[in-house]
Amino acid sequence: MQFGIFSVSDITRDPVSGETPSEAERIDAIVKIAVKAEEVGLDAFAIGEHHNPPFFSSSPTTLLAHIAALTERLVLTTATTLITTNDPVRIAEEYAMLQHLSKGRMDLMLGRGNTAPVYPWFGQDIRQGLPLALENYNLLHKLWREDVVDWEGQFRTPLQGFTSTPRPLDDVPPFVWHGSIRTPEIAEQAAFYGNGYFANHIFWPTSHSKRLIDFYRQRFEHYGHGTRKQAIVGVGGQAYIAKRSQDAVKEFRPYFDEAPVYGHGPTLEEFTQGTPLTVGSPQEVIDKTLTFHDAFGDYQRQMFLIDHAGMPLGMVLDQLELLGGEVVPVLRKELAARKDPESAEAPTHASLVKAKYGDGPARQPRPNANRGDNVTGDSPYQDSAPAGADE
Fold first, then answer.
1. For the domain 2-357, what is the CATH superfamily, name and number?
2. 8-state DSSP, 124
3. Which InterPro entries match (predicted)?
């Protein structure tokens, strides 16, 4: 089981101090949070993708590459990479580059996003969101697995003899999660390709996420990728932790009450009762997280949202100390004792390389200078010989 944290990259007024951080302060803070996540023993850090205020994460690969240079072990991933409004060619190129720079310490989660105006900003129609997600991933899948791609679809210009560069590290594509809150077609897509399925288990009751996860497991087995128990599942979560539960409730309440996402709606008590949000002591977070395993069975990645709603950096770093020091070690032990021997381990670049090559050396792609260019198909040397070639 991998444990980590994710951020939606919001820049929100702190309801206690009344201060709103600048973009520069917030970006600097998220880097410190990611580095701290590794220091306290967590496995993964994820950032969302947004192109509108009040969010700052419009370029996840740039941010994650910087964090990769500051860390040694942390798996870097996305809470959403927008498969609908990003060109699949650019996703293939940018995330392959991140894969090289991080030495394989990355994967990505694809999603449609939840901000309607983004679609026309990038020349797309939100009414085509689901067909876009399905077609664009089909192309991305090919771009990472075929050195030369001929392709034609509905939503972008055709490709003829196209090679995305750089090629994936060790000729092994980054692992892909398909993230969804409510759409069974996305779970179906994840199962079809044998990829991971991430249930964004934050706002909905466990019974809702269980239906999607069970459907994904059934379809994963149907497509011949393994048994239902071997399907690759990730789960979201949300927590605020203090040594004493009454302190946690007191400290978090103003942030909950004013949060742009759920503030001014259900009470904190109602929300914690009906959703995965836990506000309490380390033991309470442990107990509630274990109920996810009761419902979903063995799964491979547990992510927590602890950085949002205007909470200052110091408060988030304190959360990380408790999460890494008192919550995750107990969860690792408890979940290891429960693990079915048939269930899969969390995918890593090393495990994917091993699955492809066994004990043999990995392929290291190199450009073929004789293949010609993508515009004319001509060899770069057919019109002029190198100096001294006839001597």
1. Luciferase-like domain (3.20.20.30)
2. -
3. Bact_Lucif_Oxidored, LLM_FMN-dep_put, Luciferase-like_dom, Luciferase-like_sf
Above 80 in pLDDT, residue 374? no
Token output for 76: 């870097």
The domain locations on the chain are: 2-357
- State residue 347's pLDDT score: 96
Decide the pairing of beta strands 2-7 and 301-307. parallel
Q: Residue for token digits 């240079």?
A: 69
Query: 46-55, 143-152, 295-304, 382-391: which range is least confident on average?
Result: 382-391
Question: Which residues are CB-neighbours of 323 under 8 A, at least 6 positions away?
Answer: 5, 40, 42, 239, 241, 285, 304, 306
- Binned at pLDDT 50, 70 and 90, residue 380 comes out as very low
Q: How many CB atoms lie within 10 A of CB 216?
A: 28
- Asked whether the beta carbons of 220 and 194 are under 8 A apart, the reply is yes
pTM: 0.90
- Sequence-distant (6+) residues with CB within 8 A of 170 are 104, 349, 353, 357, 362, 363, 364
Q: How far is it, in rounded angstroms, from Cα 108 to Cα 177?
A: 6
* C-alpha closest to that of 101 among 145, 69, 53, 131: 69
| 3 state SS of 55 | strand
DSSP H stretches of helix in the chain = 23-39, 60-70, 88-101, 118-121, 129-145, 184-193, 206-222, 245-258, 268-274, 282-296, 313-322, 328-338, 349-357
What are the C-alpha distances in Å from 191 to residues 98, 208, 226, 294, 366?
25, 18, 10, 22, 32
Supply the Cα-derived Rg of the chain in whole angstroms: 22
